[in-house]
């Protein structure tokens, strides 16, 4: 390992596939009906196993049905690290447009996730939104868990 | 007279003890005095400093980063924090030493767990020395509120002081 690589790196663009030897891949996906205007619903949720950290490599958050306009802010998503929906993932606290598709998740700057975190994708339907309840939001997350004791100092914010 | 200094016997409530006269008579039961020790030990002669940051309009659930320039020869002793919106615990934070490339806490932790409360701040048992010359820290703050928040944050510590 070079000296440069030994330095823990906060740059999210490098060495996404390096790191621990015993990695455990995951591919979570789920869907939920769009809630009534003014409401919210959990699209997908998974627990990071105890003793393991990981990262989300690819992500999909999508809307299936009519009435949604990308980016108009009437349907939004957030990704949280907890069940209480208080700790949002940096940069994913107000997602205005869909990200990839469940059949084709897109690569994102890796999201570092930590043991015992409940990664939760929540969809919000604005009060004034023309989006009727009953449409569907879908989400998928692809990545790896790895044992904490194999961490090599690489972490992503 | 037993001095008590080298004895495991209980000093409190004994009139002839070596600390007699060093605390107020009417508060002797509640006073705690450690003879000859400055606070914090090992940093005598330094002066207190607060490295301050404010996030006056942080959006609901938003996370923001800020690089803080820390005084030379700064020793971190604790954190102070407050928030205008305290629902969900107010906010959480993370501190990254830019010079040593380490997170002091490896994930976001609620500020009251690390900083305590306004009337009862927590002081670190282990002071942390930043790099002596032009140290920087990255401060990451995550708003837990569902409302826009006004967050104040400070690193409390000592500049200078005797360091062995």
Structure overview:
The complex is a heterodimer of chains A (157) and B (164). Chain A has one domain: Jelly Rolls. Helix content of chain A is 3%, strand content 41%. Chain A is built from one helix and seven strands. The radius of gyration of chain A is 17 Å and the shape is elongated. Chain B has two domains: 36 residues, no CATH class; 113 residues, Jelly Rolls (Sandwich), CATH 2.60.120.510. In chain B, strands 2, 4, 5, 6 and 10 form a five-stranded antiparallel beta sheet that branches. A four-stranded antiparallel beta sheet of chain B has the order 1-11-3-9. Chain B has a two-stranded antiparallel ribbon with strand order 7-8. The longest helix of chain B has 5 residues. Chain B is globular, with a radius of gyration of 20 Å. Chains A and B meet through loops of A and strand 5 and strand 10 of B.
Helix content of chain B: under 10%
Could you say what the CATH architecture of the largest domain in chain B is? Sandwich
Strand content of chain A: 35-45%
Q: Please give the domain count of chain A.
A: 1
Q: Total strand count of chain A, please? A: 7
Helix amount of chain A:
under 10%
Q: Which of globular, elongated, flat, extended, rod-shaped describes the shape of chain A?
A: elongated
Query: What is the CATH class of the largest domain in chain B?
Result: Mainly Beta
Estimate the strand proportion of chain B. Answer: 35-45%
Query: What count of helical segments of chain A does DSSP give?
Result: 1
Euclidean distance between termini CA atoms of chain B: 37 Å
Radius of gyration of chain A: 17 Å
Which whole number gives the mean pLDDT of chain A?
Answer: 84
**Form type of chain B:** globular
The largest chain-to-chain contact, stated as pair and per-chain residue counts, equals: A-B, 18 and 20 residues
| Structure annotation, total helices of chain B | 1
Radius of gyration of chain B: 20 Å
């Amino acid at each position: 390992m070079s000296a440069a690589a030994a330095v823990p790196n906060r740059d999210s663009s490098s060495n996404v596939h390096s790191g621990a030897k015993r990695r455990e891949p995951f591919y979570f996906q789920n869907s939920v009906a769009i809630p009534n205007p003014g409401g919210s619903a959990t699209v997908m949720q998974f627990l990071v196993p105890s003793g393991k950290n990981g990262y989300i490599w690819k992500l999909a958050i999508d809307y299936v049905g009519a009435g949604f306009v990308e980016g108009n802010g009437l349907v939004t998503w957030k990704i949280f690290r907890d069940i209480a929906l208080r700790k949002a993932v940096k940069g994913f606290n107000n997602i205005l447009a869909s990200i990839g598709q469940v059949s084709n998740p897109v690569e994102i700057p890796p999201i570092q996730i930590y043991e015992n975190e409940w990664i939760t994708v929540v969809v919000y339907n604005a009060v004034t939104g023309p989006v009727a309840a009953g449409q569907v939001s879908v989400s998928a997350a692809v990545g790896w868990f790895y044992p904490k004791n194999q961490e090599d100092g690489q972490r992503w914010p | 007279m037993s001095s008590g200094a080298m004895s495991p016997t209980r000093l409190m409530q004994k009139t002839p003890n070596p600390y007699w006269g060093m605390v107020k008579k009417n508060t002797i039961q509640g006073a705690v005095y450690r003879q000859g020790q400055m606070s914090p030990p090992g940093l005598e002669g330094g002066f207190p400093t607060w490295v301050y940051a404010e996030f006056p309009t942080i959006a609901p659930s938003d996370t923001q980063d800020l690089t803080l320039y820390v005084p030379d020869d700064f020793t971190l002793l604790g954190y102070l924090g407050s928030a205008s919106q305290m629902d969900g615990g107010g906010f959480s934070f993370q501190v990254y030493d830019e010079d040593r490339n380490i997170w002091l806490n490896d994930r976001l932790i609620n500020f009251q767990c690390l900083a305590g409360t306004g009337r009862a701040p927590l002081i670190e048992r282990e002071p942390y020395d930043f790099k002596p010359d032009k140290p920087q820290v990255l401060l990451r703050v995550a708003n837990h509120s569902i409302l826009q928040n006004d967050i104040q944050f400070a690193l409390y510590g000592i500049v200078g002081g005797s360091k062995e």
